[in-house]
Automatic annotation (TrEMBL):
Higher taxonomy: Bacteria, Pseudomonadati, Pseudomonadota, Gammaproteobacteria, sulfur-oxidizing symbionts
Catalytic activity: 5-methyltetrahydropteroyltri-L-glutamate + L-homocysteine = tetrahydropteroyltri-L-glutamate + L-methionine
Entry binding sites for Zn(2+) 1: H646, C648, E670, C731
Organism expressing this protein natively: Bathymodiolus thermophilus thioautotrophic gill symbiont
Binding site for 5-methyltetrahydropteroyltri-L-glutamate: R16, E17, L18, K19, K117, N122, R520, C521, W566, E610
Protein name: 5-methyltetrahydropteroyltriglutamate--homocysteine methyltransferase
Annotated Zn(2+) binding sites: H646, C648, E670, C731
Length: 758
């Protein structure tokens, strides 16, 4: 018999119940007791959703983040959060977000833990902190209580924890402590934990070590051996779980650690499955993650069965089946969707549907395919319908992208010659000022967009409302004295959604929320088919804005790589192929803007870096196609048209050569938070074009001072010739209030004037 299990279930709730409960608790609208009650109800629902599985995860629920849960379980709470109150949940929220409740007195507010991306997902975790006086001490009461809670409900509980090696690797040393020096004392706590779990009757524990899919240095590989040699004596059985990629050099290590079972991602590491089977000692369980936990497409059940059947014959009871990774990264339940096209809906599977697929596969193996004939037939129909659907395939688009040739992404001339023409055309002063695109999204704008969408506001009235806002933005920018203006993006709810809604090949769910961090969720658009643009998407708004001013108006677009990386992408062709289609759609828009006399155009690639593969050895292959797609979208313009791009991160140094290849005339980047540290890269790399290193942090409500901004720009001018520098905030201003934006930009312009005078 094959055993089924799940690595983790989304905890946010299918109507984002947890999000709303948390936010109510933080604003003192509900009590802690009520919050705990909602959480327990959600857990119960989620275990119900998983009731057909042989083993269900426990400990995957979290009030904020599973890594932070681990820090509390291990007693590794930052010193600044200890003893703030007797209430551990409130202390936990303080580490997560700086404060527990809205009306909290300042003395219990602390600096929130740093947040960073969980591997190559869009989920963000709170980085564990280490120092020389880090002590671990088991605080397992919450996990133990959840296990009892699950057992009382008849759930066959499989606790889920992050393994000690990954936990250390994810954290950050706050002094010069070598993290690996902490390993021994850390592992002791896991030993205690496993004893406690055994006391509750737990048989299997899932221990996640996803760093096994990254490039590990010998000391980290040795850490695995040391750790698992100690844990080998545990009274529970350990299922070591890796996911998100291939094991490669770590394959033999992962197979030979003294644990009772190994889970691998048979979607992303399908080509390794046979080697793993051959390498894994014959007394161990092999769990194959055969349902994609990172996308929303139905599994091709008959193809999977065909592939699995000989594996099952080989492994028998040793074979377990699961999704490839925790289902945290997909929305909860497709049945909530009422507005999706019925064909498209029939091709999709969210968490609940993915578990149903898992059950069908297990049943087919355990009881014979005849026991699931109907289900398989239905699946085959859906898979075939999708394969051949005219919604998916557009011959014209496919033909067009085959016409890619080497020069399509090239400008006509080099930057030096373009810069001369552009400087004559725009006649900008030294240290020209601009912004990144959006201006504050007031309640009125949001309301107008909502009313238009729901039909309450006519198209004409909506257009007038947006134009009024654009007019206001232009007027403010003229009064402030900015050099290159923007229209302010009032019509955009989101920089990807706005374009996706106007492109063929995109669709949107109503409830397809995925947790990004804490109570924050995103609803990624779905790219289901060939992408093309039917009509201009921004030309009207931009030309209207240009008609109001003599200053140059900067067109504002989202680039193809960001459109891709922030969507659920079709899996029937390589991501690079989808990106190429996107790049043509954006190219059309760029050329239409140019035709409409918009001569400065910014193409945002906020998420370019996020697409980097987990292994550095694969970076270049990604960068090759990603940069080429950007170039195709941007570089078809005349020499006199100035192309800007924008990126919202400061980790730049390791991809600077690729960034330079984009050949944007101007690049604006986030730098202020890192005190222009980023600019160090320019000591070694001679960046050839113009650059606007963000001079202030738009994520903070603080008003930046003139002096601070002058100082930052002076640092920049030490590395980059002044004539190639721009002055701008580090990102769009949509999350700020007008009463913050106006004084901040006033100071920014004063700073630029001072710099010019010098
Ligand atoms: N143009 C966008 C804006 O200003 C850019 C947003 C971003 O970089 N995340 O909002
Ligand atoms: Zn940005």
């Amino acid at each position: 018999m094959v055993t089924t299990h799940n690595l983790g279930f989304p905890r946010i709730g299918k109507q984002r119940e947890l999000k709303f409960a948390l936010e109510k608790y933080w604003s003192n609208a509900i009590s802690q007791e009520e919050l705990l009650h909602i959480a327990a109800t959600l857990r119960q629902q989620h275990w119900n959703n998983q009731s057909q599985l042989d083993l269900a995860p426990v400990g995957d629920f979290s009030f904020y983040d599973q890594v932070l849960d681990m820090s509390f379980l291990l007693g590794n709470v930052p010193k600044r959060a200890e003893n703030l109150s007797d209430n551990t949940l409130d202390n936990y929220f303080r580490v997560a977000r700086g404060r527990a409740a809205a009306n909290e007195s300042d003395c219990t507010c602390i600096q929130a833990g740093e947040m960073t991306k969980w591997f190559d997902t869009n989920y963000h975790y709170i980085v564990p902190e280490f120092s020389h006086d880090t002590h671990f001490a088991l605080q397992a009461q919450h996990l133990l209580a959840q296990i009892t809670e699950a057992q009382t409900q008849g759930v066959k509980a499989k606790p889920v924890v992050i393994g000690p090696v990954t936990y250390l690797w994810l954290g950050k040393s706050k002094d010069d402590t070598n993290k690996l020096d902490l390993l021994e004392s850390l592992v002791k706590v896991y030993v205690q934990l496993f004893d406690e779990l055994a006391n509750l009757g737990v048989e299997w524990v899932q221990i996640d070590e996803p760093i096994l899919v990254t490039e590990l240095t010998p000391d980290w590989q040795a850490a695995f051996k040391q750790t698992y040699a100690t844990l080998a004596h545990s009274p529970v059985k350990l299922l070591l779980a890796s996911y998100f990629g291939t094991l490669q050099d770590n394959l033999s290590l992962a197979c030979n650690l003294p644990v009772d079972g190994l889970h691998i991602d048979a979607i992303n590491a399908k080509e390794e499955v046979q080697t793993v089977i051959n390498t894994l000692p014959k007394d161990k369980i092999l769990s194959l993650g055969i349902i994609n936990g990172r996308n929303i497409w139905k599994t091709d059940l008959s193809a999977t069965l065909l592939w699995l059947t000989p594996i099952f014959q080989q492994l028998g009871d040793r074979l377990w089946l699961a999704p490839s990774c925790s289902l945290l990264h997909v929305p909860v339940d497709l049945n909530s969707e009422q507005a999706l096209d019925t064909d498209i809906k029939s091709w999709l599977a969210f968490a609940v549907q993915k578990l149903a697929e898992l059950n069908i596969l297990a049943q087919a193996l355990n009881q014979g395919q005849a026991s699931v004939t109907k289900e398989i037939a239905k699946n085959i129909d859906a898979i075939n319908a999708r394969k051949h659907s005219p919604l998916v395939h557009n011959a014209e688009v496919k033909a067009r992208v085959t016409q890619v040739h080497d020069t399509l992404g090239n400008r006509n001339t080099d930057y030096e010659s373009r810069a001369k023409l552009q400087s004559k055309k725009f006649n900008l002063p030294l240290y020209p000022t601009t912004t990144i695109g959006s201006f504050p999204q007031t309640l009125e704008i949001r309301q107008a967009r909502r009313d238009y969408k729901s039909g309450k506001l006519s198209e004409e009235k909506y257009t007038r409302a947006m134009q009024a806002e654009i007019q206001h933005c232009v007027q403010v920018q003229e009064e402030l004295g900015l050099d290159v203006l923007v229209h302010g993006e009032p019509e955009r709810n989101d920089m990807v959604e706005y374009f996706g809604q106007q492109l063929n090949g995109y669709t949107f769910s109503q409830f397809g929320w995925v947790q990004s961090y804490g109570s924050r969720c995103v609803k990624p658009p779905i790219i289901f088919g060939d992408v093309s643009r039917s009509n201009p998407m921004t030309v009207n708004w931009t030309t209207y804005a240009q008609s109001l001013t003599d200053k140059p108006m900067k067109g504002m677009l989202t680039g193809p790589v960001t459109m891709l990386n922030w969507s659920f992408v079709r899996d029937d062709q390589p991501r690079s192929a989808t990106c190429l289609q996107l790049s043509f759609a954006i190219r059309d828009e760029v050329l239409d803007l140019e035709k409409a006399n918009i001569n400065i155009i910014q193409i945002d690639e906020a998420a370019l870096r996020e697409g980097l593969p987990l292994r550095k050895s694969q970076w270049q292959a990604y960068l090759d196609w990603a940069i080429e797609c950007y170039r195709i979208s941007a570089n078809g313009v005349n020499d006199e048209t100035q192309i800007h791009t924008h990126m919202c991160y400061s980790e730049f140094n390791d991809i600077i050569a690729a960034i330079a290849q984009m050949d944007a005339d101007v690049i604006t980047i986030e730098t202020s938070r890192s005190d222009m540290e980023l600019l160090d890269v320019f000591d070694e790399f001679d960046y050839p074009n113009e650059i606007g290193p963000g001079v202030y942090d738009i994520h903070s409500p603080n008003i930046p001072t003139v002096d601070a901004m002058v100082e930052l720009m002076q640092k920049a001018a030490q590395r980059i010739p002044a004539k190639r520098l721009w002055v701008n905030p580090d990102c769009g201003l949509k999350t700020r209030h007008w009463n913050e934006v106006q004084p901040a930009l006033t100071n920014m312009i004063l700073a630029s004037k001072q710099l010019r005078a010098q």
